[in-house]
Amino acid sequence: MFVAPTRSRCPWNLQVLYRGKPIGRGTAALKPYRREVQLVLQDPTGALNPRQSVYESVAEGLRIHGVKGDEETLVEEALARSGLRPPRRFFLAYPHELSGGQRQRVVIAGRWPSSRACWSPTSPYPAWTPRSGARS
């Protein structure tokens, strides 16, 4: 994603580009973009419904976006890719039963099945830290 200035009366008017094209406005124009790019909040507690199991939380995105395939397999793959292993162990768990890091991974897993873009949730810190003095 890239933010580029546009010509307008306001010098700070910006345009958001995704894959080199401006992101449209309105529900219909944003639907393809939302399928690929989704927000993952720092605090997963507010993003997870306490009444939904981990399985239901992850499967919800599949249902909303109409992702084809075996739902159980897709949920299992998403949990495994986000670092929750063995994934079936977490199917019936609820958010209050998980650690903060596990909750964050459930939120990430919920975004993965419907999104083609992948990112690594390995560290909340930048590659360079003052302690190490070097970039990884």
User: Average pLDDT, to the nearest integer?
Assistant: 78
Cα-based radius of gyration, to the nearest Å: 18 Å
Shape: globular
Count of runs of 4 or more consecutive helical residues: 4
Question: What sequence of helices (H) and strands (E) makes up the elements?
Answer: EEEHHHH
Short account of what is shown:
The protein is 33% helix and 8% strand. The protein has helices at 27-36, 54-65, 71-81, 100-111, and strands spanning 2-5, 14-18, 21-22.
Can you put this structure into words, describing what you see?
It is a single chain. The protein has 136 residues and is mainly alpha-helical. It has a domain at 39-111. The protein contains four helices and three strands; from the N terminus they run βββαααα. It has helices at residues 27-36, 54-65, 71-81, 100-111, and strands spanning 2-5, 14-18, 21-22. A hairpin with an 8-residue loop joins strand 1 and strand 2. Mean pLDDT is 78; it is low at 118-123 and 125-136.
What's the topology here?
Blueprint: E1 2-5, E2 14-18, E3 21-22, H1 27-36, H2 54-65, H3 71-81, H4 100-111
Antiparallel strand pairs: 1-2, 2-3
Helix pairs in contact: 2-3, 2-4, 3-4
Give short descriptive properties of this protein:
single chain, 136 residues, mainly alpha, 3-stranded antiparallel beta sheet, 3 strands, disordered C terminus
